[in-house]
Amino acid sequence: MKKILETQRLILEVIEEDKLEELANLLANKNVHKFFPKALTRQESLEFFEENCKRQSEDGISFWAVIRKEDLRFLGLCGLLKQIIDEKEEIEVGYRINDQYWGKGYGTEAAKGCIEYANNNLRWSSVISLIVHENKQSIRVAAKNGLRLEKSTVFNGRPHQVYRIQF
Questions:
Q1: Beta carbons of 124 and 81 less than 8 angstroms apart
Q2: Half-sphere exposure in the Cβ direction for 89 (13 Å, CA)
Q3: Residue 112: how many other CB atoms lie within 10 Å
Q4: Hey, what domains does the chain have and what are their CATH numbers?
Q5: What is the maximum alpha-carbon separation in the chain?
Q6: How far is it, in rounded angstroms, from Cα 41 to Cα 158?
């Protein structure tokens, strides 16, 4: 376990092979991926894992496993990702929490931890969140963490809204 950060109730750590089964279950969950192009197959989950490991190794940031402290349960993913948005490199906070844990503030708490990490440890000037217009839950998470709607863009061929927090 390589811990990246800790919040009041959560530990965010590098996703390692021992989490592959839980990761695949999360990525296959159609409810969690309602606003994504699709849920992933086992093979696609393995490719996601390998790409995530590459990002962590090359960039020092990636999606991290969200682990609940009280029982060490895997709740989902949250992390920081380098993205190119409108020809500019940005740092995005992204998250996917298993639907059985929705409504308890875990996504908001994990995202806040990542935003603070980006500010305090990485010294980035801002963090964005890319959200499709229909994803009201993620828009609420962004607002709770101080991100404000900045503009609309196209990301991976789909319309998205860019929310930003400046430090």
A1: no
A2: 6
A3: 20
A4: 3-166 (3.40.630.30)
A5: 42
A6: 21
Q: What are the backbone dihedrals phi and psi of residue 30, each rounded to the nearest 5 degrees, phi first?
A: -65, -35
Distance CA 138, CA 55 (A): 23
CB 13 within 8 A of CB 64: yes
Length of the chain: 167
Q: In this structure, which amino acid lies at residue 30? A: K
CA distance 150 to 152: 7
**In whole angstroms, what is the distance from residue 160 CA to residue 167 CA?**
23
Exposure of 36 by Cβ count < 10 A (0-12 exposed, 13-18 middle, 19+ buried)?
A: middle
Model confidence pLDDT, tens digit, residues 65-81: 999 999 999 999 999 99
Nearest CA to 98 out of 29, 21, 13 is that of 29
Closest CA relative to residue 76, chosen from 29, 121, 36: 29
DSSP-assigned states of every residue in 116-143: HHHHHTS--SEEEEEE-TT-HHHHHHHH
State which residues of the chain have pLDDT below 70: none
- For the record, the structure tokens of 109 come out as 């708490």
- pLDDT of 1 reads 77
Which ranges in the chain belong to alpha helices (H)?
20-28, 42-59, 106-120, 136-144
